Amino acid sequence: MNIILLGPPGAGKGTQASRLEAERGMVQLSTGDMLRAAVAAKSEVGLKAKAVMDAGDLVSDEIVTGILSERLDHDDVRKGFILDGYPRTVAQAESLERLLTQKGMALDHVIELVVDEDALIDRITGRFSCASCGTGYHERYKRPLVEGVCDVCGSREFKRRPDDNEETVRNRLAEYRAKTAPILPHYEAKGLVRRADGMAPIAEVNDAIEAILDGGA
Ligand code: AP5
After folding, report:
1. Which residues of the sequence carry a binding annotation for ATP (predicted)?
2. Residues annotated in the binding site for Zn(2+), as ranges?
């Protein structure tokens, strides 16, 4: 099963993709994570991407499609993948179609997480993650079970993304409305779009996605 999780910043794409990876063995393909790894490694791509990401703008289609194409050549994606953060423009949606055809793969669903825009700023500005294993948390909605200690690896160090401040988030939302939302009709025309209520609690959103994947919703 190969799916796209689509939704604005803070919709819960990363949260749900990690759960699907753990529960179903599907592979999470987050272009945001790939770009952040390139920035951390100070690679050529990372150096080009850093300022763009910090401002909340979109990195060029050419760069992002290049890193995704390389990732799709790894054998593990044959287990099934969850695209998280790609495609983000009509040009990327068209590139994805060509890439999947070349690699003999196809999409099963495009699942849109429908969220109330007011909630997004609150979700993103409250988000933090474990500095060691990357597990995601939120100041109010998902705190570690033991205060100050990561549930998964026990680390006591946490970090925040540099693009998670309110001003940048507002720009990311504007980019989503202008450049990413227009790809929905592309997938609607193919009958691939399903919707889940992204305002529900995390476990319920997960159940709704699982129901779609199991063909029951
Ligand atoms: P990326 O890393 O993809 O960020 P994003 O799309 O802005 O999405 P987020 O990671 O902010 O949100 P999410 O939907 O994953 O929400 P999450 O699950 O974390 O991209 C970053 C940047 O990289 C872009 O701005 C761009 O510059 C560049 N980039 C990446 N891909 C690109 C591409 N294809 N083309 C060009 N540029 C690209 O949840 C958020 C918080 O809410 C968490 O704290 C979580 O615990 C909480 N939460 C989640 N679900 C719920 C719920 N149901 N109820 C309550 N709280 C919830």
Report:
1. 10-15, 127, 200
2. 130, 133, 150, 153
